[in-house]
Amino acid sequence: MSQTTKPTPAGALTGSMRDFRVPGGADLLARVDGFYRWQDQRRQHGLWPFSRATDFGPRTEVTAADDRGIVMQGVNFASQDYLSLSSHPAIRETALEALDRYGVHSAGSPALVGNTTHSVALEKKIAEFLDMPEVVLYPTGWAAGYGVIRGLVRSADHIVMDALSHTCLQEGANAATRNIYQFRHLDLEHCRRWLSTIRAKDTENGIMVVTEGLFSMDSDTPDLAAMQALCHEFKATLMVDVAHDLGALGADGRGHIGVQKMLGKVDVVMGSFSKTFASNGGFVAVRNRAIKEYLRFYSPTTTFSNALSPMQAAVILKAFEIVESAEGAKLRDEMMANVLSLRSQLAAAGLETYGDPSAIVCVKMGSEGLARLVSRRLPEMGLLANLVEFPAVPKGQARFRMQVMAKHSPQNIADAVSIVSRARAEAEVELAELGAPAVAPERVAA
Asked: Which domain holds residue 347?
């Protein structure tokens, strides 16, 4: 039985967050009301599947509550813990040891006295892991993506970036320069045309080309060697975000940079610890000490932010140790076996997925209205999976991003596929009964 018995209004199935990104009006506080009315209409009809809270962290099975306080229990494919390290005994033990030794707080920027012996050792470990001489740590992965662009690019410079680059990279670009050029996703020829156009007019200023090792919405990857060669040709700098593949993919855990034999060959590498390494935080790996020191003092999200806590640094260091071990290889094998099983069972159930096998398995839905009706049913049936809709993905390409863990069981996977299949079938019937939604979000009644 659905927790929402009221008829679903058309306004709750239409519109997107982009509609409210630039609200009008002189009152900065009052003008957000339109967004809240639209959001709350979705919330009251069980169509706002965001801001859930779990009781015990990112386990494969969870108890969670939505932001109305409604509790669900079921299998969890919504958390980013690809190798299931967040509950690893050695990780917990390391966290407790660091807590006893250092306390809970770094109490300073890395440029001042926020570093610890663990954070210094972590910088060296990542440098060795990526075959890059120097590493700068950041408090979050978002801060690393934003900060490396904001730290290196100035207003007269240019940024050429994959159109599907993460928001932190887009926001860093917008803060750094107005000279931003997006190329079609993974389209090297389109990237070349932008570089050629820029260099035909400007040979004096810098160009940063931005891409990702693994794109989190489409689960695909660029040809990194070709991109680096293109950058060399046009005297541009390549920056690759490895947040989703580092540690989790490749025989040795070095992600697509390792798989494509590009270790030590990419100009700048940034990444996050929040997907595989059981912690918040991020890093930027560069080719020499001069770049590192410049970022340390001119990249605002590290210079003017507290450093990673001692416990975070210790946990990440231990996670790298596990990732490099035989146990890490086994966990990657287990994760990939789960990925392949999930994709295969989804296909057998008539459900399509995006991209190539990785811990990110995005299940195609199509219309936002259908996806929202499915999202209402999933927790009721016992599944947590993240709805992704416009503007995070193109309009009409809504999907569920299912994030696989090494410790998901065969039953977890079978249950998840069964739930998604049943929820979609029911939602299609309801959508047909409702007819085409026509109410614009701005017209939602107060």
From this structure: 47-76+326-433
